[in-house]
Amino acid sequence: MLKICNIVIVGGEGDLAFRKLYPALYSLHRENLLADCTKVVSFARGKLGLDEFKTKMREWTESSDYVREVDDASWASFQERVVKFDGDATKAEDISKLKAELGEDDIVFYLSTPPSIFAPICEAMGAAGVVNDNTRLVVEKPLGTSLESFNQINDTLFKTYEEHQIYRIDHYLGKETVQNLLALRFANIFFDPLWNRNYIDHVQITVAESVGVGGRWSYYDESGALRDMVQNHLLQLVCLVAMEFPARNQADDIRDEKLKVIRSLKPITAANVQSRTVRGQYSEGSVDQTLVPGYLQEDDAQENTSDTETFVAVKAEIENNRWQGVPFYLRTGKRMAHRYSEIVIQFKPVVFKFIDVDPNAINNNQLVIRLQPNEGIQMNMMNKVPGLSETNRLQNVGLNLSFEEAFEEHRSPSAYERLILDVTRGDQTLFMRSDELRGAWRWVDGIVNGWRETEQRAQKYRAGASGPDDALGLILQDGRKWLNFDHD
Ligand code: BG6
Known about the structure:
Layout lengths: L5 E5 L4 H16 L8 E6 L5 H14 L8 H8 L2 E5 L5 H11 L4 E5 L6 H11 L7 E5 L6 H14 L5 E4 L6 H11 L13 E9 L8 H26 L8 H13 L9 H4 E7 L1 E3 L2 E3 L18 E6 L11 E6 L6 E8 L18 E7 L3 E9 L9 E9 H4 L8 H11 L8 H21 L4 E4 L6 H8 L12
Parallel strand pairs: 1-2, 1-4, 2-3, 4-5, 5-6, 7-12, 8-17
Antiparallel strand pairs: 7-13, 8-11, 9-10, 11-12, 13-14, 14-15, 15-16
Helix pairs in contact: 1-2, 1-12, 4-5, 5-6, 6-13, 8-9, 8-13, 9-13
This protein binds 6-O-phosphono-beta-D-glucopyranose.
6-O-phosphono-beta-D-glucopyranose (BG6) binds next to loops.
């Protein structure tokens, strides 16, 4: 296997680098998962002095939820890998200097910078002649705000890199519970026969956040919940729930199957957008018993008339043999009551009711996959309530698997640990291919254009609520209701 000896973080003094990347790299170092020769290189304009840089790196690493502890000995050995290189990544001469310092070993370039400077950085890399077949490039969202802008960014990358060298991160794919979706589906025989329109009534995917957008208002205002969350994280979850068995457990076989799901999504356009989507925006309210400002009153809000959605609910439909007629209800929002991400597979009711069923327990069987927090799986099933009453009573009770309890002795790595490690191993399974992203943008563009053409406005919801009232209507119109097992 190829040994990657240099991981260069372009934008190495930025927020993402300190919050996620260095803590992840430290954990990989501590677990002996980096090759002996690997250097961790910060490539940035050098606003921080060396001491300040290293202090900040340690502080953020210590405060990471995923790092168990930072001990002096392993921190000192980690620091032997760390190189701080001050330079401008859009200038070929600075990249050449970096290369001279690093020698002939292969490089991963992790672009932790705004996409607006991907083009000059890639051009500078090309001009400096640092890219060979083994060089890898890691890029993060936002990769565009539409199909057109995604294509422009992608074309820029393709001038210097080929698809097999580009690792497009969707950090949801690095989460343990998201990876477990495939194991759950494909390694347990009892799900396979039921996993289709004959037995599944509908699917719900909720990614609720209690935080607001304060601190990144201007980015978010250009994006909104649909582009920030649905285009990538939620659609990837849809793919993992809906995809067919891949031919082999290999990157392109899995990505081929995900692509088919994206291509099978029924288009949402001006003709149906109002009955398929709901937009919301949080107003002042209280979360965790603390009063919080509305979206338009956030400290860094730049205008007070923005209609950007901070909540979105979508009824997605997959037009293929397995899923025809099985809606996927998706919702995500900021400033909701609790932070939780959950997938609910709602099975159809049994046909013959051999015992009178409590009308409140009509949803006989659900599989609930809790992605975060309280990671785990719950199977809800009907049981007879013990007792001697004349008529048998049934109750829906959950079989509950908590990952924390089941895998007590295992540390759950952060998404970034998994993803960075896979880049060094050359495994693209958990990274998005450009055709997947093109398909996702095409579908999302249909919704955005539909909203524009029909002038569909964002409805206000109080911070701390579960979205605007119409989100209830979206699912109620089909005779169903949102299910929430983490906080019911
Ligand atoms: C990011 C979005 O991709 O995902 C953020 O840009 C969002 O707006 C975040 O808060 C959520 O990630 P997680 O891992 O906290 O669920």
